[in-house]
Amino acid sequence: MHLVTLGSGTGQATLLRGLRSYACQVTAIVGVTDNGGHSGELRRILDLPQVGDTRQCLSALVDETCVWGQLLQYRFTTGELRGLSVGNLMLAALSTLHGSFSAAVAAFGRAAGLRQRVVPVSDTNTHIAAELQDGRQLIGEWEIIQRQPRSDVVRLFLQPPAAALPAVLEAIATADVLVLCPGSLLTGMVPVLLHTGLREAMAATSAWCLYVGNLMTQPGQTDGYTAAQHLDFLHRYLGRQVDAVLLNSGVIPADLLAYYAQQGSEPVLDDVTEVDLAVYRADLTEHPTLETIRRYQRPQGEAMQVGLHVIRHDAHKLAAQIMALAMARQAGADEPSQRVFR
Fold first, then answer.
1. Which residues fall within 8 angstroms of residue 140, CB to CB, at 6 or more apart?
2. Which entry of 44, 142, 182, 259 is 20 to 30 Å from 308 by CA?
3. Rounded to an integer, what distance in angstroms lies between the CA atom of residue 239 and that of residue 242?
4. How far apart, in whole angstroms, are the C-alpha atoms of residue 246 and residue 11?
5. Sheet bearing 127-132, strands edge to edge
6. Is the dihedral angle over the CA atoms 312, 317, 320, 322 positive or is it negative?
7. HSE of 336 in the Cβ direction (CA atoms, 13 Å)?
8. CA gap 146, 58 in Å, rounded
9. Of the CATH numbers 3.40.50.720, 3.40.50.10680, 3.40.50.2300, 1.10.10.10, which one belongs to the domain with range 2-125+164-334?
């Protein structure tokens, strides 16, 4: 079975961490348009695609106890180097040595002995851009997130336009299952879909397509969005309808909800009906310890912008549910039993 994930950042990396223990073929197609944090600084200095989301995905697949895993995850915590990611620097250096970001990622995967494949969607240094209802056009993820006034987004596009890599289109064409990962909808998932050739590849493939719904709304992106509104916005750019949706039915810890509420984020309301597609629900929430939360709250250097990443899907629960669905379909079931999610 060939399972292809599409996304960017923490949500995709979380799923990949859970998939590590499964024997199926996995290809992760990763976005490159984030302009925040340390990888945003590298973009401005070295004229590279964004490397941080790909680093997260590689880190999720590498044994964290080996030297490669330790280097990918390490960030300096003091002085002028505070927030600087060693893994980002490694990928930036390899990009220079190998001539492109995708070649750098492939070289790292070989050196680390990865069984799964991670592929950036493009080698182009492009940005997500938005046309707003009030007529403004904004270029850059954080420019969109932090816009004031917060006029509605009418249209998203890439600036400059960028094509999906041939390896990306090949992966989609040969996939048995496509998983649209949780994460930033407007500035994470949609930018991946906007790369030339990808929408057409999604429309042409016969792969079963599953969308994993977000746990929380994101300030500046999906304020007040319900699960159905997330899905409607995604369908505008996908080139096809998804075949199924997987939504969380578990309880998110109250203390984490209170923390997110202070930032203007709330749980995504589950209002998706089963009229046009299959809907599956399961307890997918992680219940992190204080130590885990401290690890999630990474050091941040001056002027480095990062989002909220404390409330997450549980990697093993999420991977188990997706694999149960995928294996049921492979066995020939037209509609996998929802009992696997109880």
1. 35, 127, 128, 129
2. 44
3. 10
4. 14
5. 137-139, 127-132, 153-159
6. negative
7. 24
8. 29
9. 3.40.50.10680
